[in-house]
Amino acid sequence: MAEVRVRIDDAYTPRGIFLPFHKSDRRWSCLVAHRRAGKTVACVNQLMLKALACRRPSPRFAYIAPFYNQAKDIAWSYVRQYTACIPGVEYNESELRADLPGGARIRLYGADNYERLRGVYFDGIILDEYGDMDPRAWSEVIRPALSDRQGWAVFIGTPKGRNHFCELWEGAQPDPAWYALMLKASATGILPTTELDDARRSMTPAQYEQEYECSFEAAVIGSYYGDQMKAAAEDSRIGRVTAEPTLPVHTAWDLGIGDSTAIWIFQLSGNEIRVIDYIEHAGVGLDWYARELDKKAAQGSWKFGDHILPHDAKVRELGTGRSRVETLQGLGINPTVLEADRIEDGINAVRTIIPRTWFDADKCKHGLEALRQYRREWDDKRKAFNDRPLHDWASHPADGFRTLAMGLGKIRSTAWSKPIKYPKKTGIV
Description:
Number of strands: 17
Low-confidence stretches: 1-6, 415-429
Strand content: 15-25%
Strand order of the largest sheet: 3-4-5-2-6-7-1-8
Oligomer: single chain
Structural class: alpha/beta
Distance between the termini: 58 Å
CATH topology of the largest domain: Rossmann fold
């Protein structure tokens, strides 16, 4: 590989707060930064510098945003701007790719289609706004893509509540294998005091703390269920929930086509809803979910009650001419299908039932994270939230829980039993 020398100050003068990051030799980095701190610019240049310095054959580097369009809108202009000083660089606009002399390549991706990254390798990766990504993108696809090259990764973003990005940050701080940096607006001096004062006046205290002071404690801005999920945690309704053998086990589904299907598994006792498990997968047929439910039933000695499906389960598929209801019936599952309803009514129903719902923290971890993250779509042009939900990785789990809320009145299997009194150190904790 031919050596290409480009000084860091030819196109990019790093802010002093990012110099330690650029000089760090740690494999993993976590940067939590306030809005307009310059984290994306710093990380795009980190990709460029690492790509130029890499001596492996055919080096591959990637910038990943939550959505492909975000990667294009936010980072592509930076890639072009800061690599323009490199002699011989070539660009592929359709693939958002910069080919550097010597064989190194920088490419932009969206985590909304992270499955396409299976089978590729990377020497280094930037994950921008990691808190907005499906956490499985890292563990199931991106992390393995770094293994054979012992590649590095940088996670950057602004807090979005106590989610997987928060867990990453808290785990990175004491770990010597990680470089961890938090940049609060009150400390960096990047934004003028007058600008911060104006932002504080136009935002709620929680919004300001999250966006400018890097607080993970505030509920996600625009979240539909943030307050209810926070109350559930404070009330110790998120912990360990064991199945009661005398009660039937019900399921509530959201059926994806070509993407994730989500299933909430729960019992009813008195006025309580006890969510004991959760299943979500993608790219498999309904037979896989039927086998998985049978497996869990055998392990837990469950007796299934009702299976609640959304209205679109009745739609016949073009390839087979059969509806998914008919497919499930052939697999031994006789579901109850809801009528179509307004999303707003379903969201209100969920808000009503969360205060009397208990969740198993471990088995429902991904679903719980989705309920916290499910939020309204932001219109950047109007600088306001739209009335519709944002469609991202949290949508399917949230839609499945909406099926649960709307389907409670359809439970036919048995009358609700009286509440069970758990001993102090067993059952729900």
